[in-house]
Structures are given as C-alpha cells and as structure tokens.
Write a structure and sequence with these properties.
Order of helices and strands: HHHEEEEEEEHEHHHHHHHHHHHEHHHEHH
Number of domains: 3
Low-confidence stretches: none
Distance between the termini: 32 Å
Length: 516
C-alpha cells in the first residue's frame, strides 16, 4: 500500500498539473479540485483495504491543479500589467539586469534576457517611471561581435514591446515558443531594438564568478584547439553548443548524438562520479560535503538546464544515501526529483521537452538496461560496447515516441553510433579539462594534450559525419495526432509490463550512477 500510494500520489499530482495546463488554460475556480476531495470522503466508510486511496488521489490531483493555477494567475497578472505598453505601439526604455548568459542566435546575433526593474517612455519624464510588481523578463536580439554584454550587467534598452510568437520548424511543426519562454517568466520581446546602453556592471556574485571561470575555459579551448573540435569540446564539457557549425550539428541530430553536445545527464553523471572519485582521499563525510558543493557549482556553471538539474538532484540523493547509510531505490528518487522540479516550476511538465526527454531516458535506463544487458550478453564488452548499446536501446524505447511526435524524425543508426562513440566521451572530456589546466600550470604537457584531445574529439566527429551521410540514417515523419503518441506509450507500457513479469530488478541509486 505504501509503495502504491507513493507512486500513484506523485503521478496523480502530475495529472492535476497536466489537466489544468491542457484543458483549463485560464485561471480556474478553486472549488473544482475541492469538489473532488468532497466526493472521495464518503468512500472512507467502506470496509475495504483501499478505502483511503481515492482521498489520497483526489488530494494529490487537487494540489497539482492548484499549483499550476497559482502560477498561471501570477503570469496573467504580469501580462495585464504590460498590456498598456503593448497596445501603445510606442518605444519604451527598459532598465534591468541581464538574467542569464547571452546566447548565440540567428545571423550572428546574441539573444539577451533582461530582468525588468523599471520602464520609462522614450521621451518621458522621470515621474512616469513604471516599476513592475512581479518578476518579468523580456528578450531581445542584438549584434554583439565584441562580446560586450554579460550576465549580471545593468542595461538600458530602448525598443518596442512585442508578444512572443510561435514559429514553424523545418519539418512543418509549430513550435510553442510563447509557452517555452513563459516557463522562465519571459513574456515579451523587444523588436525593433533602437538603443542598448550599459549602465552598470552588476554585483559580483557566485554565479558571475562561475561564469567568469566558464568564459576562461571557453577562450582557452577556442585558442588551443582547431574548429570544429573546439566547439565540440565546449559542448560536451560546458554545455556550449551554440558554436557548432550547422552541418556538424545536423550530423549529430541525424545520428542521435545530440544528447552528448547539449550536456545531458550522461555528461553530468561523468563529471559527478569523477568528482567523487577525485575526493576519495578525504574522510567520507568531508568527501560528500565537498562533492555536494561541487555539484551545486557545476550546475550553476553550465546553466542549470532541466537535464543538469535532474542529474544534480539525483547525485545529491546519492550523497545523502551514503551519508545516512540507507539504500535508496533509483526509480523512486527519479520520481521524487521530478516532483520537486514540477513544484518549483509547474510549466516544465508540458512545455519543456528537455525535461520530458531527460526523465523518460533516465527511466528507460533504470527499467530496461539490466534487461537489454542480459539479452545482449553475446556482444563483446570491449570499450564498453555492450553497455553503451544497452544504454542506448533502453533510452530509445522511452524517448522515441516523443522525439518522433515533437521533432518529426528518428535516427535508425543511433544505437550503433552511440555504441561506437559513448566510450570516447569521458576520455575527451578528461583530456580537454587537463588541456586547459596544463596550459596555465604545466605548459610542457600542452602539445601532447592538444594532440590527444584533437584526435579524441575528431574520432567522435568523423563517426557522426560518416553515419549521417547514409540515406538510412534518419527517417522523417509528417505531423500526426497526439492520440497516436498516447497509443505508442501504451505499447511501451505493455512492453515494460511484460518484461517485469519475467525479469524485474530494481536498481539502487548507487547502481544507477555506476551503470553510466
């Protein structure tokens, strides 16, 4: 009963968030979820074992429903505050702090997100200054050839306020860009931008210092390694995929290798396990404490995307399990981590595909990797080929339906390519890290590490380019109804259910990380 209650309560909480997101896109009455609770109360009197389950589920559903409703009401309040500015079609001066690292966008421009602190008509007076009541972010594009705009700077930007607009992707699907940005409290864009002025450097915080370290690493990588190897290392080590040439990025997509470039949970797990290993000389308690702070710093350093946060939180539970000496089931921890992330930001459940793919892939590893390793026992494990193939197949079973639905393509060569490449990723990451360190501390080692880093990265690139050139590398699908997505995941659930009847093994959090 306890096990069923844990899983069903969290899943029902997610259902409450999803129902409100998809069926009730506007703020709803609080009476609706409480009505469900009242309906379930009489069932407590029934003389059956599961009499409390309807009450638990109705409460969990109501909490999910209310959590999204609270967030939605806040978003509506922000939009209502800015409607007069949006309707006036005049230019305004927005002053605020750059709230995230500028990202490379189309045509060599930088996408900058500004946390708005004040708004002033372009030719207005100071007594007309408008201060938003809620956290509000706006986005704008600007050419930044000198890299003069940085996280934490205070900017004054003049332009016209516009709504965020959805756009059509290359495969004919409509990308819900408005909600994708809204989940990060970014509601509007400035277009056109008339003037940008730096009005302050901003405060020196832990985040700015960590971003300074990241910029140092990026400059060293770009200086020491040729292209496109330097861009690939920036991606797998620091999550900076924006510098990848379009042709190479397309090759990684066609071969199912994009997950190593955007700093997936696989890369993060490598860093976390390496961190714990390097601290092995410390007493256990100090080792785990230092590793915990290191995981937090690394999460901030690489941008705290959903995949990174998911891996970091699971690593935190790994550290906790070692400190208290208690075995934790990885599947439960994964569900708990998803629950915590959705409580903080309920919009990611439906509108963040990175969040969805990360948890589906991780659950696939936990559920199916022992099964596939057993079936593929005939495959030699040289360079961990069998483990890489098992991991890829396990993740692909769970992510393939969503990838086909959302992106319209699927890589047929992905399992084989991942088998050839994944063993090289931690080697390339380690060599790249040592290269940057040696260039400052041990310059006599730098030429050797440049050679080794270049060719380890070049191996990954050549494999991706060769297999992406094959006609069978990728299959494209026309847009289809979301009900087919439900059918596909129903088949996946049947497959998992059939597997569990014959072969069921629950991984602990320790075993999950050691299997990466």
């Amino acid at each position: 009963m306890e096990k069923v209650g844990f899983y069903t309560a969290i899943i029902t909480f997610f259902l409450g968030v999803a129902i409100h997101t998809l069926v009730f896109p506007l703020p709803s009455s609080f009476l609706f979820p409480f009505f469900l609770i009242l309906l379930s109360l009489p069932l407590i009197a029934l003389p059956v074992r599961w009499k409390f389950l309807p009450l638990v589920l109705s409460v969990a559903f109501s909490l999910g429903f209310l959590r999204f409703d609270i967030s939605l009401r806040k978003h509506e309040a922000v939009r209502n505050e800015f409607i007069p500015l949006l309707q006036s079609d005049k230019s305004y001066q927005f002053t605020g702090e750059v709230s995230e690292r500028p990202k490379t966008a189309s045509y060599g421009r930088k996408a900058i997100t500004l946390h708005v602190e004040s708004v002033l008509p372009q030719y207005g007076k100071s007594d007309k200054v408008f201060h938003p009541s809620y956290d509000t972010h706006i986005r704008f594009l600007i050419r930044d050839t000198m890299d003069q705009y940085h996280y934490g700077q205070m900017l004054s930007v003049t332009g016209k306020l516009r709504p965020i607009e959805d756009f059509q992707t290359e495969n004919g699907r409509i990308f819900d860009y408005r909600h994708y940005l809204e989940k990060e409290n970014t509601f509007y864009q400035l277009s056109p931008v008339e003037r940008v002025e730096i009005v302050g450097k901003g405060k020196a915080t832990l985040t700015t210092k960590l971003y300074g370290i990241k910029d140092y690493f990026l400059k060293k990588i770009q200086f020491l390694l040729p292209q496109p190897e330097s861009s690939l290392l920036a991606g797998i080590l620091l999550g900076e995929k924006t510098a990848l040439p379009n042709s190479l990025e397309n090759a990684f997509r066609r071969t199912g290798l994009m997950h190593i470039v955007v700093l997936s949970g696989y890369n993060v797990s490598i860093v976390i396990m390496a961190m714990i290993f390097l601290l092995a000389w410390l007493p256990l308690r100090w080792r785990l404490i230092v590793a915990g702070f290191g995981i937090l710093a690394f999460t901030i350093l690489v941008g705290a995307g959903p995949t990174v946060v998911r891996a970091a939180l699971m690593a935190s539970f790994l550290i906790l399990s070692r400190m208290i000496g208690k075995v934790m089931i990885a599947e439960r921890i994964l569900l708990l981590v998803a629950f915590l992330m959705v409580i903080v930001n309920p919009w990611i459940l439906i509108y963040d595909i990175s969040f969805q793919l990360s948890f589906l892939a991780t659950y696939g590893l936990m559920e199916l990797m022992p099964f596939f390793e057993n079936i593929l026992s005939f495959v030699p494990n040289l360079f961990e080929f069998r483990k890489s193939l098992s991991a890829t197949l396990s993740a692909q079973v769970f992510v393939m339906p969503l990838i086909v639905y959302a992106m319209g393509n699927f890589s047929l060569v992905s399992p084989f390519v991942n088998m050839l490449v994944l063993f090289m990723v931690p080697i390339a990451m380690l060599l790249g890290f040592l290269l940057v360190i040696s260039s400052s501390l041990l310059p006599f080692l730098t030429p050797i590490l440049i050679f080794l880093s270049t060719y380890s990265l070049r191996y990954i690139i050549r494999v991706a380019q060769f297999f992406s050139s094959l006609r069978i590398a990728n299959i494209e699908f026309a847009p289809f109804s979301p009900w087919w997505l439900v059918v596909m995941y129903g088949l996946v659930a049947l497959f998992v259910w059939g597997k569990r009847k014959r072969y069921d093994e629950k991984l602990t959090i320790e075993e999950h990380f050691s299997s990466h």
